[in-house]
Amino acid sequence: MLSLNNLQKSKSIKPSKRLGRGNASGSGNYSTRGMKGQRSRSGGKSGLMSRSIKGYLLRIPKNRGFRSLQSKMIPVNVGELDKNFKEGTVINARQMLKVGLIKNISKGVKILSQGKLSKKFTVEADAFSVTAKAKIEKAGGQTVVVGQFSASEEKKNKSE
Question: Where is the composition biased (Low complexity) (predicted)?
Fold first, then answer.
């Protein structure tokens, strides 16, 4: 709020130099540009490029990192399955989509072990973490690897 006790004097604005207005102005004759060369002429500063590549490299935007071409599977935790499904149901990607745990099926679903599991399920997914698989089987359920990613998962399990 403006009042008499907090009024301040306005900061003075220094007027810009008027170049090329005769010798008496202090910046006549060559208008502070020097005598000859590219920079003394009109359009000279913008057209002049530095000789080294350093100036060119500094102007290029550096976008760090990269985006992987390999699509990542959508993670779903065991605890979320326990909350959203009844005991004894067969859970697959389409049912997870209906419930709203995942947004699309195309990337594949990986079941992770976070959360507690107290119900017995048969879970069909593209991949399982080792601890999630153990939790589901400990609760009395089954894990079934299905989908387009199942072949690559089987190769990994055989090599281990």
Answer: 33-43
